Amino acid sequence: xxxxxxxxxxxxxxxxxxxxxxxxxxxxxxxxxxxxxxxxxxxxxxxxxxxxxxxxxxxxxxxxxxxxxxxxxxxxxxxxxxxxxxxxxxxxxx
Length: 94
Known about the structure:
The chain is mostly beta strands. The protein has no helices and ten strands.
């Protein structure tokens, strides 16, 4: 679940992703805004594992609306070809 909600002073983003994908453990994530191949903005959120161990979650705040925001999550060791990179889109809440 990835949600973006407008508040009086900006935008709140809620992140919640599965801790495993095809038996690979979550290993890292990046939030990007703009085009995937040349983002305007990117950062690495700190996601915490839930008490039940099934999800990693976090929230962050932005004063401006991010354009085409996505969360890119890695499972396993994607860099050496032993895992997956999954791109999650945000749902906009009114």
